[in-house]
Design a protein that fits this description.
about 550 residues; mainly alpha; 4 strands; about 0% strand
Length: about 550
Amino acid sequence: MSTSTAAETATKIKELLKPTTLQIESIDAQRLDQLRRIFSNLISTEQLNLTAQKPSQAAQKWNMWLKKQHGNFIDQLCHVVRMGRKSGMRTFMGVIASSPMNDGNADRLNDGLVVKLLQALMDSYGDEGDGIAPEYMLELLQIEFCKYRDVQYFMMVSMKQLAKSLGGDELDGVKAENLLRILMKIYIACDQDDLTPNDLKKDGSSSNYIFTPPIVEDGAEIENDEFDGEIVNSNIESDNDSEDEEPSPKKRRKVTVSKTKKAKLMSWQSVRQHRNALQQSTLAILQVSTIPARTMKRILQHMPVNILPHVSNPLRFADFCTRAYEVGGVTSLLALHSLFILMTQHGLEYPKFYLSLYNLIETELFYAKHRTRFFKLLVKCLTGSQMLPAYLVAAFCKRLCRCAINAPPSGSLFVIALVSNLIRKHGECACIIHREGDEMEDVYDADEKDPAKSRAIESCLWELNALEQHYHPAVSSMAKGCGMEDSKTLYHDLDQFLVHTYKSLFDQERQRGNNKRKIKIPLTFHKPKGLFIEGDIFDGIFDFSFKSQV
């Protein structure tokens, strides 16, 4: 570049780096976008190199000045992103897409810029000054940026570093909340095929990578890169867990033996590395003790489907799930699903599981928002095994029936159906229904936390008799039939009872009433002569006089 051209560029950059006095988003967005175009052009023409040194002293001096101005430009972008401006977010994405790094093998994302973008979102001012990143900013990030596979990987690795910098005060809890919300916007690859570049064009670009990695051809020996969660030439730390996944990170895996061709799989191309990055970033954020309860509930809902099936070692989340399960209330209901997956699919041993599950059953549960999810898991826990002891099954039946008395009709129907299935599946518990006696004292201790000490097996389900007098005819009829089934009676389909609500039950009864009205039933009707029947001591008082109709 000639001296005059360099001087013009420097003057233009200095002019654009001065913030406008008018706080108008559209004007400021144009200024920042012009800066992005200038720096993008400087990088593409190799006048600005963010990593390497220039050979000549003059070029090195010019490069150093440009790097300093580029840093000022990034600082202004971070401020705009913290303010919650979409234009600043889009400009920042454009800067990242036009500022690749080359580690000798191929171009990749500039991890330092990714860290700065995430830090700006983490330190967001919030719409109300509360530090909570606006949802529209995160949705924009998800739609326009998180769809790229290399972006997903570098974002997860960067979030691990940012989470380690957080402390334990309330403000850090809000920052960790922002990181978790960003993490929940990322849906990583399920298998290696999902990381294959799609829709390759002649210029080498693809639809699922910002910087397309080297293509591994068929017949090549694939070797996992030594990246292992650590970004080369960056400040991001890495302490790769050797026990996260087998085989060892240094172990090679051969797709097809070939003596002539070898290819290297970059870390952001490896599904194993993506899984490790997801696991390490999530665990690092969850270590912040002051994360708000509202976000804990969201991550517990997100974990069973979007985290546990994809991480390399799901048992690393056992401590978090057990702590959440012991909190009580809605948090315990949401943690139940993850804990159940760890127990049934990954061999987690948790002796207090049924004890905690027993104590979760309260009348308030039948009115909770997440009751359907809990009842589905309750069915799996109680009906999935015939090895449960009789005293435990009896205790659950007794506690459920006690709660059903004050539950809505939909909940009562579900309880009766579940108890009917359990008693037929565990015949030794039939005594709590068919125990006879003129007067019987209920020895069941409803206040006992331990089902083994509640003496439910010595009690009887008198609650079913109470439910026989229920105002809803469906509840009454089901309660009368509970325990009367024979061996040919099919088990109740509990999924049908889980969808019942006040509205659905009302619609059923209304439809049944409409069907009955279609049938004309002859009735004999005698007009009353007075308010009281004949023979009553008040007979003759308030007699009615009927006029004959012409």
